Amino acid sequence: MRKKTKIIATLGPSTTSPKILTELIAAGTDVFRLNLSHAKIEDAKGIINNLKASSAKLKRPVAILIDLQGHKIRIKGFSNKQFIDLKSNQNFILDNALKDYEGDDSKVGITYKDLHKNIKINDEILLSDGLIKLKINRIKSNKIHTTVLRGGRLLPFQGLNKKGGGLSLKGLTKKDIADLKKAIKLDIDYIAVSFVRNKDDLIAVKKITDKKNIGLIAKIERNEALENIDSILEHSDGILIARGDLGVEIGIELLPAVQDELIGKAMDHDKLVIVATQMMESMKTNRVPTRAEVFDVSNAACSGVDAIMLSAETAVGEHPIEVVQEACRICDIAEKTSTKKIKTTNSGDSFHKIDQIIAMSAVYGADKSNVKAIAALTETGSTPLWMSRIQSLIPIYAMTVNEKTSRRICLYRGVYSIRLDKIEHDHARANKQVIKLMEKQGAVKKGDLVIITKGDLMGTSGGTNALKIVKVGKLLEV
Fold it and tell me: Which of 63, 50, 49 is CA-nearest to residue 22?
């Protein structure tokens, strides 16, 4: 199965054993996410070592993404209760003076001490991912008096949002900074920054990551981020559309249009784009997805996103392997049968980098001919990245001796990563090496045309400056 859309699986209690990790890779997982809202950075090293072992065993590169917790505003806990049931029209108080476990049926503490300074009468507060709605009717000192407009079961330490947004806290938390400093010492590929408001949040992260070769993904889950999306894209390697908190802030009815707009924006900036939250939620307990989930995953794949992300489905779900298999199957069929016209990337009116010229020439040329596949010999992954920004039906095989590059490529739509032990420096031998590998992958057969891109000085950064068209079975002998 050669799906173009990549699958990100979140790790958790259901999926950290070496056996399950190996099965997840075999099932089609391309990127593994460690969510520091629930996991500890101290556990990451062991998990990464297990992932590397599984990846090497299957000879299939996979990428590793660390997701920072960020400034999540939450309620606190309850005294001697696992939850409370809020009823419509009852009074309920949010009190920042309460400690972690002093809440009851009439009140609860909050983690944001200045909440009362950032809201006003008649504002609506949303709890538990928007399931519960409160209306503010009085603010007295540290206490926010509300009326329950929509009741429900409230669990300890669930999220708190204001409808319309505006409660974002500034900068990285102390925990984020500590986690980030530990994360950059590990062999990881991407950092996801939660609750990004503007470019300053990303600049703060870059000051810590410095010159580490780690991709930066901005999670779009705040209303403020939508207003600053262009500058956020300019300062990141891509965005992750986190539809949970974003939907709570802007209203879930607006999510489809906003998702499409964000995907288009990412394409305009030639950046990666991931869609997340409840993609296959029912499969936490069920072995098959709902029809609505199939449509959701299919729509994402047909919209040209680089990846979809599975969260609780794989982290704590009962059937993590089946979830990945179903997601892969849906993406594969959707891509093959879709008649939807995907917006072409906006790479500007002119190309200034040589590797970009080669990349664009390869993809456009392949699309307008009977070329069956593209092989990109690469050191940094920049050439296959440029190629992946064009929405094409031609498969791209990125081949590299650089282990880190081989992993980062795993997030690029329509690019299949192949790790090489060495690259032949004689060009004729290199061509034969490439074709042999592609035949082994089942990508091409005798008589097929293949485009190969490489550099005069193979194995050097930014050196792609050559494009060659070869016919399988009729290469120059060496």
Answer: 50
Token pair 């696992």: residue: 82
Residue of 22, 52, 74, 135 marked active site: 74
Domains and CATH numbers, the chain: 6-70+170-336 (3.20.20.60), 84-162 (2.40.33.10), 354-471 (3.40.1380.20)
DSSP per position, 332-386:
HHHHHH----PPPP---SS--SHHHHHHHHHHHHHHTS-EEEEEEE-SSSHHHHH
The one catalytic residue in 219, 284, 372, 454 is: 219
Distances (CA, A) of 278 to 1, 16, 190: 24, 21, 22
The structure's pTM equals: 0.91
Banded pLDDT at 421 (limits 50, 70, 90): confident
Q: In this structure, what are the phi and psi dihedrals at residue 314, rounded to the nearest 5 degrees?
A: -105, -25
Q: What is the pLDDT of residues 346-365, one digit of tens each?
A: 555 677 788 889 999 999 99
Sign of CA dihedral 56, 58, 63, 65: negative
Contact between 313 and 277 (Cβ < 8 Å): no
Looking at residue 79, the DSSP 8-state letter turns out to be T
Cα separation, 454 vs 258, whole angstroms: 39
Catalytic residue among 3, 4, 6, 33: 33
Q: Is 219 a catalytic residue?
A: yes
Q: Which two tokens stand for residue 102?
A: 């002093």
Q: Return the beta strands (E) in 110-231 as ranges.
A: 124-127, 132-140, 143-150, 152-154, 160-162, 190-193, 215-220
Is 57 noted as a catalytic residue in this protein? no
211 a catalytic residue: no
Residues near 380 by beta carbon (within 8 Å), at least 6 away in sequence: 402, 405, 461, 462
pLDDT of residue 440: 87
